[in-house]
Amino acid sequence: MKAVFISDAHLRRSKDKRYGQLVEFLTDLQEGKVRTLVDTQELGREKTPIDDLYILGDLFDFWFCSKDHIHPEFQLVIHSLVDLQKTGVHIHLCEGNHDFFMKEYFHDVLGMEVFEEWADIKLD
């Protein structure tokens, strides 16, 4: 299992530098362009796909939306996550103290795993 963990992006506006950096990073994950400690040439492949992406809280600086209304500033990141999910990557979100009530949208609408409090994750 190959997993990537990110946290505390605190996204606010699509014009912010870190917003663009995160979208670029998600695109790189989607295309399998993940830096590894192992030279991918030695493995006989150019790309290193991942199995899981864990977002460990505070992806957004403030998330308080419903499944019927999503703040327009967050659409690009959400679309990037959906595109990544379509490649077979499992996306897991842990709510932070800046993003609340994510389950209604990310789990119920998009089918991503959402941990509302804490999670015990076993990696192999």
In words, what does this structure look like?
25% of the residues lie in helices and 14% in strands. The protein is an alpha/beta fold and 124 residues long. α2 (75-86) links the parallel β2 (52-56) and β3 (90-94). The chain has one domain: Purple Acid Phosphatase, chain A, domain 2 (4-Layer Sandwich), CATH 3.60.21. The protein is globular and about 35 Å long.
Blueprint of the fold:
Elements: E1 3-6, H1 17-30, E2 52-56, H2 75-86, E3 90-94, H3 103-107, E4 113-115
Parallel strand pairs: 1-2, 2-3, 3-4
Helix pairs in contact: 1-2
How many domains, as an integer? 1
Q: Helix coverage percent of residues?
A: 25-40%
Would you tell me the structural class of the helices and strands?
Answer: alpha/beta
Strand residues, percent: 5-15%
CATH architecture: 4-Layer Sandwich
Q: Report the principal-axis shape.
A: globular
Global Rg: 15 Å
List the keywords:
globular; 124 residues; 4-stranded parallel beta sheet; Purple Acid Phosphatase, chain A, domain 2; alpha/beta
Brief overview:
The chain is of the alpha/beta class and 124 residues long. The protein has helices spanning 17-30, 75-86, 103-107; strands spanning 3-6, 52-56, 90-94, 113-115. The chain has a 4-stranded parallel β-sheet with strand order 1-2-3-4.
